[in-house]
Amino acid sequence: MEVTVQEAKTHLSRLLRQVEAGEEVVIRRGREPVAMLVRAPARGGARAIWGDLEGALGPDFDGVPGDFDGYV
User: Fold this and answer.
1) What is the pLDDT of residues 57-72, one digit of tens each?
2) In the chain, what are the domains?
3) Angle at 62 (CA atoms; ends 61, 63), nearest 5 degrees
4) Cα(1)–Cα(55) distance, rounded to whole angstroms?
5) Which residues touch 4 (CB under 8 Å, ≥6 apart)?
6) How much is the pLDDT for 72?
7) Of 28, 25, 29, nearest in space to 37 by CA
8) Where are the beta strands (DSSP E) in 1-72?
9) C-beta neighbour count of 4 within 10 angstroms
10) Which residues face 25 on adjacent strands?
């Protein structure tokens, strides 16, 4: 769906309901598209962004590599 800036200002609440339902809204100034309203990602903290990383790092992750023995 495309709307003008004026329509977006006048009908923002309605447009947000449509976006929540999954629709994308392009806002244009004259004939030129300038912005897009899309649904925001769900909030849920770091786990929502990174997923479950348990076990993703090896047991020696914070260990000193063998070739650095003389420097430690």
Assistant:
1) 777 777 887 887 777 5
2) 1-39 (3.40.1620.10)
3) 95
4) 44
5) 27, 28, 29, 30
6) 59
7) 25
8) 2-4, 25-29, 32-37
9) 13
10) 37
